[in-house]
Specification:
Blueprint: H1 2-37, E1 42-46, E2 49-56, H2 63-76, E3 85-89, E4 99-105, E5 115-120, E6 123-131, H3 137-150, E7 153-155, E8 159-163, E9 176-185
Antiparallel strand pairs: 1-6, 2-4, 2-5, 3-4, 3-8, 6-9, 7-9, 8-9
Length: about 190
C-alpha cells in the first residue's frame, strides 16, 4: 500500500513540477515579448554606409535561400564585410516583390553581377534595436508605423534591418537586430 501511495505522490509531484515549468515558460515568453515590444524608438541622424547586396525579385525565395546564394557569390568574389549582414526592403507592405540581402562593405568594394554596390545616404531615420527572436519583428514594425503616424513622419527610400550577431551562434533570445527607417516630416 505504501508503494502505491508513493507512486501516486511521485506522480502528483511530477505533475506539479510540469505545471510549474509550464507556468514559468508562459511567464518567460510574456516577459520576452514585453521587453521586445518596449524597445525604445529613436529619431536620429544616421551616417551613410555602403553595402554589397544581391537583389531578390522572386517572392517565393526564402531568406535562407537568399543568404546562401549571396554568400556563395560574396565569397567567390573575394569580397570582405566591414559591418553586419543586412536586409533591405523597399516597402512596409508584406510580401513585397523586391528586397535585398548583403553586407555593409567598404565603398571601394568592386562586386560583379549579380552582386551590386550601393550607399545608404544617411540622414534622419527612426531606429530601434531589438533583442530577441526574429518572429517578434512584425510587432516592432506595428510600433514604428504608429510612431510615424503620431509624429507626422513618412518613410523615404528603403528601410534596413541590420543583423548585429549570428543567429547560428546565439540562442533566439540573444539575437540582436537594428531597424533603420529613413523618414521626413510630412508636409
Amino acid at each position: 500500500m505504501a508503494l502505491i501511495h508513493n507512486e501516486n505522490h511521485n506522480h502528483n509531484h511530477s505533475e506539479v513540477n510540469m505545471k510549474k515549468r509550464a507556468g514559468f515558460l508562459i511567464l518567460f515568453a510574456f516577459l520576452c515579448t514585453f521587453l521586445i515590444a518596449t524597445e525604445e524608438i529613436t529619431l536620429q541622424k544616421h551616417n551613410p554606409f555602403t553595402y554589397v547586396y544581391l537583389e531578390i525579385t522572386d517572392t517565393s525565395v526564402s531568406m535562407d535561400s537568399a543568404i546562401g546564394t549571396f554568400m556563395g557569390h560574396f565569397s567567390s568574389q573575394g569580397l570582405n564585410a566591414s559591418g553586419p549582414f543586412l536586409a533591405v526592403y523597399h516597402s512596409l507592405v508584406a510580401n513585397e516583390s523586391k528586397w535585398r540581402v548583403g553586407f555593409i562593405s567598404d565603398a571601394e568594394a568592386k562586386p560583379t553581377p549579380p552582386l551590386q554596390l550601393e550607399t545608404f545616404i544617411g540622414g534622419q531615420a527612426l531606429t530601434v534595436q531589438i533583442k530577441g527572436p526574429y518572429d517578434q519583428i512584425p510587432k516592432i514594425y506595428e510600433s514604428l508605423i504608429a510612431y510615424m503616424s503620431e509624429n507626422k513622419l513618412t518613410m523615404v527610400l528603403s528601410y534596413y534591418e541590420l543583423y548585429l550577431n549570428d543567429p547560428q551562434t546565439v540562442v533566439p533570445a540573444e539575437i540582436q537586430t537594428e531597424i533603420i527607417i529613413p523618414v521626413v516630416n510630412k508636409q
